[in-house]
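Components:
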Amino acid sequence: MVLQASALLNVATPERNKWLKGKSIVAISQFDPSGTAYTFDVAEEYREIFADNRRRLKEILFAFQLANLFFEPSTRTSSSFASAMFALGGDVISINGVTYSSMEKGEDLIHTVLTEQEYVDAIVLRHKDVGSAAKAAGRLGIPLINGGDGEGEHPTQALLDLYTILREQKRINGLTITLIGDLKRGRTVHSLTELLLSYDVRLNFVAPEVSRMPVHIIEKVKASGVPYQEYTDLHEVQKTTDVFYMTRVQKERFDSEEEYNKVKGLYRIDMAFMAGIKSDAKLMHPLPCLDEIAREVDVHPNAAYFRQVGNGKFIRMALLAMVLGQA
Amino acid sequence: MVLQASALLNVATPERNKWLKGKSIVAISQFDPSGTAYTFDVAEEYREIFADNRRRLKEILFAFQLANLFFEPSTRTSSSFASAMFALGGDVISINGVTYSSMEKGEDLIHTVLTEQEYVDAIVLRHKDVGSAAKAAGRLGIPLINGGDGEGEHPTQALLDLYTILREQKRINGLTITLIGDLKRGRTVHSLTELLLSYDVRLNFVAPEVSRMPVHIIEKVKASGVPYQEYTDLHEVQKTTDVFYMTRVQKERFDSEEEYNKVKGLYRIDMAFMAGIKSDAKLMHPLPCLDEIAREVDVHPNAAYFRQVGNGKFIRMALLAMVLGQA
Amino acid sequence: MVLQASALLNVATPERNKWLKGKSIVAISQFDPSGTAYTFDVAEEYREIFADNRRRLKEILFAFQLANLFFEPSTRTSSSFASAMFALGGDVISINGVTYSSMEKGEDLIHTVLTEQEYVDAIVLRHKDVGSAAKAAGRLGIPLINGGDGEGEHPTQALLDLYTILREQKRINGLTITLIGDLKRGRTVHSLTELLLSYDVRLNFVAPEVSRMPVHIIEKVKASGVPYQEYTDLHEVQKTTDVFYMTRVQKERFDSEEEYNKVKGLYRIDMAFMAGIKSDAKLMHPLPCLDEIAREVDVHPNAAYFRQVGNGKFIRMALLAMVLGQA
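Structure:
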């Protein structure tokens, strides 16, 4: 059963057909509510065809090629894009890790992408430097998708996160969404917050003092008019939250192990915590997850983080088809 | 020309059609003679189609995806599964080595496979920990194939080994099979021995004292009624063996270099040795092979170890099609 | 618009259809002018189909498999072969870097290629040892393509270089071609020089004293009758050259940093240099390029090195189809 994203969100998507054709996806700010809803509609359409007759999808990007250019390791993101490309019938050239890149011989990023451009139709780039995706996209004649540029952006993650909220709750407007963990440096929480500001939501930011949401994001929230509140203890919003978006509290951010030990219990979700949340509240996480969620929670029906992974595949199928002019 | 495995083995395969559909392959004990013969029949059928019109095979797993999840390097096994999947029309996501796994960030095996499950239809897992395959398979909703779990099992290797014996000798019953080398720690010799116990064979175990077949395997052999004998000198069975299954004697198992040097000549096969074997005896090896077989033996017609590699591709084609419900 | 290579070169290509079928490509000496022209004709035909309806190309190597066996990292060459194979509908098994090769366990090159031979239809080999490709090809029953063997050969690079000259200048005969940089150890300049000796060209070799073209190549040039001259300053041939073939002057070849600093300016191309060349002269480079060409030159219309990369894809498509008997 298809979820009608644009209808659920009450957003029109006029003239959105092929609006991303030939474009790069560098920042989440490229996605207004209409563009976002269109993306979700395409993802849902592919999901339905996939369930019904996945062979039909293999026609969509048949004879197209994607380069998965990962200068940092990321099994999850590279697998997700590869699987999405394969599902649509395309081929993938995987370049994982500097060890077998010609960067070893001193070549720079721009020459590497200009070279790959001669082979493929689109590039997914993961690179540790903030701004690298924008810089590379500016030189290319083919679409580039930012697969994470250091502490910069990871726009496809933000889209799959919002899509997961919509699929899990069948709405976005009216929800109370709580972001937890290292809000200072987490690019996923920054991009997701930015994306959420276009909707009628309430935001909670739960973080230790040393990892609070940075001022420039808080300023954007204020400017948007979206109500928000900051907390240091997750339990304060346990019963009022519709979507918990968990990330790791990183030990290395604290001055001492004692400091860390003092707060870490405030940012850990276990079965006892799950027993006290709203019956339809959902738990998300961008993964990888260490011990901030107890492993027994994995099988809790309200734990949505593996469904979130699966949603990523359909979002990336949609985005690949869109930048390649097929949707 | 197709070899009718089930007929040659005089084994019925009733109700075996799709018997592995949706199941994981973790241990060789899942394969009784009937299941084994069915697997060989499927492998032979694919071999015949491959020779005749390989394009037809590309329909079988079209639009299916496999993750080759290798936490330890293994060119041979990962290539074999990839080639098998491609031959049947499927796509492969290759994750080779920890360097670009999110395990680097501290993620555990279970989360890694639960993540990949959202992308693909089956997973091949190679991992250094005994029991890792069973543990992962127990959590998955898709089939997992054990591609070797440390000193544990490597069931697809045992199947391809038995299949090679059958193809080379056109029978299994009545054969004298000699396993040579490090029988203590070799998972391939353990799995193959276990598989052979269902047939009317005679087994020779040839190993230095420090590397003898472990008691728990010997107990299984005794219980099966299969006749066996242990040796320390390969030459004692040179003239009576139908199939030599060679593995490496590992230097590091010996107390001193002198100890090792004393015995190593007893476990090396060269052209002189080959001249003294039965005219239709065959030499197998799971590879990689260092100096336990002289390189000039590679081209001896009775050296079957590269044909053995090729047989692995067809066995894995059969197994992939079976777990994915297509055979 | 198709470039008729054989017509432009005024070379007949009788009985060239499938002349490379089943053969390995180890050395550039296998390509006489007729074989070279035939290769270019196939590359051009594929280029035209690619532009017109690339889906048709996917039939050509459908159900064929290639192993990309790279013992040294090379993003460019491995991507190029992979992209070529995908464009023709084939599958690729990528083995990049020793870390996940069974060589780690001590296996030698010959056993590695004999193993891969059981899985695939052709092998591309990159290996640091001179002669490794010839050695491996001599043992294989399937075609092997030399993707660079240390300071030995890199025949597909020489072919794509010559093809680029032809595409850029619409002729080869009559051109003045200047090779620049480390001419002593550069396998690409050696192979390209050898290939050029069959044509009516004039060659300039521009190198520091320590990196001059080796005597055995100079002897071949002399024997061919092709006029040549050696220089140490690139500016001497700035106004008379039709094709500049730039390579790096390697700092580590010099006795001291002062020695290096004295000459390096003589081997660097910037916009000022480009302003003084013939209006239709072209600049090529096998890449990767460090600082021997100023980055602002990348967008100069006469800078042909990224088009050169793209030409490599079509040359490799042609060669793969040829060795696999499809062209």
